[in-house]
Amino acid sequence: MLAEQGPYRGCPAVFKFNQFDGISMDLTTPALLFPAISLLLLAFTNRFLVTAQLIRQLHSKYETSAKDVVLRQISNLRKRIVLMRWMQVMGVSAFILCSLSMFLIFIEFQFIAKVVFGISLFLLVMALLFSLYEIAISTQAIEIEIEDLEHALGLTK
C-alpha cells in the first residue's frame, strides 16, 4: 500500500514518520558534502599509497637484515590495510548515497531523500572514525621505528 498524497507520495505506508516533516532539504543540502567527501577520498587514497610504499621498503629491509622490526610491523600494516579498505568503502558509499539523495530530491521523493542522506552522513562519520583509529595504529608503527633507531644507536637500556 503506497501513500497517495503529501510528502510521502510513492512511499510504502510503513515509512510515514512525522519526525522528518519539519526538515527542509533541497538539492544544495547534499551537494555541500561533495567537496568534503572528495577530499576525504583523496586523503584515504594517499594514505593507502604511502602504506603500500612502506610495505615495499620493509620488504627490502627484511631482505637485507632487520627482520625483528619488519616482523613487528607486519601485523600493524595488516590492520591498517583493512581499516583503509573500510574507510574507502564507506567514503565511496557515502558519495553514492549523497548523489542518490540529490536524485531523489530532483524527482520529489523528499522523505526517502532525507533517509538516504542521513545514511550517507552516518557512513561519512564512520569513515572518519575508522580514519581516526588508523591514525592511532600508524603512530604505533612510528614508535616501532623509533625503538629500532634507539636500539641501533645504543640509546636503549
Textual characterization of the structure:
This protein is mostly helical. It is built from four helices and no strands. It has helices at 28-31, 33-64, 67-106, 110-153.
Question: Which features would summarize this protein structure in a list?
Answer:
single chain, 157 residues, mainly alpha, 4 helices, elongated
Task: Summarize, please.
The protein has 157 residues and is an all-alpha fold. The protein has helices at residues 28-31, 33-64, 67-106, 110-153. Helices cover 76% and strands 0% of the residues.
Q: How can the largest sheet be summarized?
A: none
Structural class: mainly alpha
Which H/E pattern describes the elements?
Answer: HHHH
Number of helices: 4
Question: What is the average of the pLDDT values?
Answer: 79
Spatial shape: elongated
Number of strands: 0
Which radius of gyration do the C-alpha atoms yield? Answer: 23 Å
Fraction of residues in H or I helices: over 70%
Proportion of strand residues: under 5%
- First CA to last CA: what distance? 74 Å
Unreliable segments of 5+ consecutive residues: none
